[in-house]
């Protein structure tokens, strides 16, 4: 940084209401204006240095500037910031919580904030993913209907992790062109080759939008590092599924006359699960409604999917699935389904969503 910029970055500006603004790092690019959605990392302290709040190690804060979603001192104090900029705010009580205590903040407190601006999203911006190849693939390119095994790690823009397939020590499997994932993640997989690693940045409108989703706050920009570990051609998937189907005991209870379930469809089903000679462990009818099941998700393992794919709307089947095609040596449901258990599924297809 030049001497002139260093001096500029240390200047303290005064705004009406005695808000103090000190730019420590200038940042670059466009500056924040009213109504921008900003993503920030921050730490707040009292004048005695006692920390009362911080986003570090957590999801960053996302809010619209000038819409009263934060204290007035922040709405005023972030105007003009640029991405990568770091700013210190000293906020008087009248621009914060006034004479009302708020959690660890006493009434009539002057507050100090260290804020780093991570991202600006502006109305009218074209929302698109940003994709970077980290390592080229050497295998085949995935096409619609193929099954792709993926490892991934998802982080917020401040680097804090919110999810990873590595935590479960196994990749996820999706059906290309039928992945029931957020739109930006699906777009980020287009044209990927086996062995390829990519980094994709997903803006809020192509992620979870403005709604909270588990640990992901509304308005979050998400970053995924993904690797296509294996791609299985559609024809091989169909052959393997037919081989699995031969290992099942299938009792047809009612024929179907409607649409057929294809691999990758979402089948709305009535389903019960039981063990041979045992009580029913799960039944959608007891819950009052049929449940959507995205084929390819492998939730109930390979035997269940082999039985479901090819069924038609209105069709009912009772299927006995050996342990190796059900929940295997691990079992499921915290012991509800013991290890190495044969499992019985009773399936009725209510609707098919391609």
Task: Describe, in plain words, how this protein is organized in 3D.
The protein has helices at residues 3-9, 72-77, 183-188, 234-245, 284-287, 301-308; strands spanning 12-15, 19-25, 28-31, 37-46, 51-54, 61-64, 82-83, 86-91, 111-121, 130-135, 147-156, 161-164, 172-175, 197-202, 222-232, 249-254, 266-274, 280-283, 291-294, 316-321, 343-353. With 354 residues, the protein is mainly beta. The strands form four sheets. Strands 1, 2, 4, 5, 6, 8 and 9 form a seven-stranded antiparallel beta sheet that branches. Strands 10, 11, 12, 13, 14 and 15 form a six-stranded antiparallel beta sheet that branches. Strands 16, 17, 18, 19, 20 and 21 form a six-stranded antiparallel beta sheet that branches. The protein is built from six helices and 21 strands. The chain is elongated, with a radius of gyration of 27 Å. 12% of the residues lie in helices and 38% in strands. It folds into three domains: 3-121, Roll (Chitinase A, domain 3), CATH 3.10.50.40; 130-232, Chitinase A, domain 3 (Roll), CATH 3.10.50; 235-353, Chitinase A, domain 3.
